[in-house]
């Protein structure tokens, strides 16, 4: 099956070599073009041409560094569902501006379903999370409800 990537009004098909390039770069973004080409069965020039095209089309938007974070036993991970009083553009913007200023919030997603936002919060322990909840999360603009769940352990982390 050919997957399609939409960019503006153009539709670009992703074939197996494109998907292989993406899969390999997700596992190792620093892989050399020579190693990448060999792994996908292309010449280095053909592989680089495909890679640059994927970048120009916006399929690959950038490369990142994954930092060595503290061992999971050093932090408590709390998954937090936030429901806002209203879901207008202004309420969403105000909440998102406030959540960006909270350093303990490591990820934030606007959601469909029961809650408006899903957050991944890192704290030193339960008492530290209580502080974050009282002093930051509950004071964010428009928050109507907060539901928190403590993670037991990480199963998959990318």
Provide a descriptive summary of the structure in words.
The radius of gyration is 21 Å and the shape is elongated. It is built from five helices and six strands. The chain starts with a strand and ends in an 8-residue tail after the last strand. By secondary structure, the chain is of the alpha+beta class. The strands form two sheets. The chain has a four-stranded antiparallel sheet with strand order 4-5-3-6. The protein has helices spanning 16-27, 33-40, 44-56, 89-100, 126-135; strands spanning 3-7, 10-14, 76-84, 105-110, 117-123, 143-150. Helix 1 crosses helix 2. The model is unreliable at 1-11 (pLDDT under 50).
Task: Give a nutshell description of this structure.
With 158 residues, the protein is an alpha+beta fold. It contains 5 helices and 6 strands. It has a 4-stranded antiparallel beta sheet with strand order 4-5-3-6.
Which tags fit this structure?
about 160 residues; alpha+beta; four-stranded antiparallel beta sheet; two-stranded antiparallel ribbon; 5 helices; 6 strands
Task: Present the secondary structure layout.
Blueprint: E1 3-7, E2 10-14, H1 16-27, H2 33-40, H3 44-56, E3 76-84, H4 89-100, E4 105-110, E5 117-123, H5 126-135, E6 143-150
Antiparallel strand pairs: 1-2, 3-5, 3-6, 4-5
Helix pairs in contact: 1-2, 2-3
Could you name the ranges where pLDDT drops below 50 across 5 or more consecutive residues? 1-11
Number of strands: 6
Let me know the average pLDDT. Answer: 88
Number of helices: 5
SSE succession: EEHHHEHEEHE
Percent strand equals 25-35%
Distance between the termini: 26 Å
Structural class computed from helices and strand pairing: alpha+beta
Helix amount, in percent? 25-40%
How many strands, which pairing sense, and closed or not: the largest β-sheet? 4 strands, antiparallel
Specify the overall morphology.
Answer: elongated
Give the neighbour order of strands across the main sheet. Answer: 4-5-3-6
Oligomeric status of the shown chains? single chain
Radius of gyration: 21 Å
